[in-house]
Design a protein that fits this description.
Structural class: mainly alpha
Shape: elongated
Radius of gyration: 19 Å
Strand content: under 5%
Order of helices and strands: HHHHHHHHH
Length: 205
């Protein structure tokens, strides 16, 4: 059981790395298996297709990211601080990736949405569910910010949360294009403006 589990994990790790670096369409099962050091015959023991593998990569990546988002957005800090912590953690992930391989990898979900949203309906639906879940998490923080007077009373919470997720994705895309994680530094200032945070409530640090 340990060996089969190890082979499955190697396939998932290899697929995640290759998808991040080169995209989905250009990859073949043979290359994934070679990178993982797993016999090609073993691939179909775990996954019925390359798309099934990609869906599993997406789910596992989201499980890890969701835990981080819930920890940051559910902390005891005030709502604005929680959003800032999320932006800083997102930037740090991109910086760490750049230090490891020399390139900003971007967002796995955003990369796949751009590449496959018109080609693979099952993947498109799963990515949509993940983005909606991200919006849900941020919306709760926006509602708290409004309740505490840290966000403008006319701010529409759901749309604001959607815009914040869109800004994160857009800024990560720019960071990937320019190979510059610093592109994410504007997220905080943009968020303050988007939420109509009054001057007296804006953090000074």
């Amino acid at each position: 059981m340990g060996r089969t589990s190890d082979a499955r994990n190697k396939l998932l790790d290899a697929a995640a790395t290759l998808i991040e670096q080169r995209g989905y369409a250009a990859l073949g099962v043979a290359e994934i298996c070679t990178t993982a050091g797993v016999p090609k015959g073993s691939f179909y023991y775990f996954f019925e297709s390359k798309q099934a593998l990609a869906l599993t990569v997406i789910d596992e990546h989201w499980a890890t990211q969701r835990r981080q988002w819930e920890e940051l957005l559910g902390s005891g800090h005030d709502p604005l601080r929680r959003l800032r912590d999320l932006f800083e953690a997102t930037e740090e992930v991109q910086r760490a990736g750049q230090q490891q391989v020399g390139l900003v990898a971007g967002c796995l979900f955003g990369n796949l949405a751009l590449e496959l949203s018109n080609q693979a309906e099952e993947i498109r639906r799963r990515l949509q569910e993940i983005f909606e879940a991200q919006i849900d998490l941020i919306e709760q923080v926006v509602l708290e910010a409004k309740k505490q007077g840290q966000a403008g009373p006319s701010v529409e919470s759901r749309e604001a949360a959607r815009s914040i997720v869109a800004q994160i994705e857009g800024r990560v895309l720019l960071a990937k294009l320019l190979n510059d994680p610093g592109q994410l530094e504007t997220l905080w200032r943009n968020c303050l403006d988007l939420l109509q945070v009054p001057a007296h409530a804006r953090p000074t640090d």
